[in-house]
């Protein structure tokens, strides 16, 4: 008789553990929602404010295009102005708004403007051969919400460019 009571108690104990386990599975407090990221419009507005602050802090006389690109022609240049699909030869330095350099081509580099970021294509198309310019671009004209390599998502960028040749 004692064995029967022990077996009954064991069955009740096992059932209680099983029930407690099932009940606890339904009370998961973990938040699995994806964090809300900055929208493209919010990033553009933030980039615009950051670029304007940079322009003011560095006392630049920049011109804004309809796309949101700011540019300063440092040296006018005397040659041709490239089309948006031209092959160009340039030197450049790319940096963040805190002046930290992320890329540069000290030696001339050649590429087709159709194969580069929109801000580069638009900005270089405003220059003449032999000219130098500073381009300040919001993320939407650079690497956008994805970023690239050392460039975080939604980051405004600055480029100092010398346009050496255009074909």
From TrEMBL:
This is Peptidyl-prolyl cis-trans isomerase. Residues 85-167 form the PPIase FKBP-type domain. Belongs to the FKBP-type PPIase family. It holds the Pfam family FKBP_C. Its EC number is 5.2.1.8. It comes from the Bacteria. GO terms for molecular function: peptidyl-prolyl cis-trans isomerase activity. Keywords: Isomerase, Rotamase. It catalyses: [protein]-peptidylproline (omega=180) = [protein]-peptidylproline (omega=0). It is an enzyme of class 5 (isomerase).
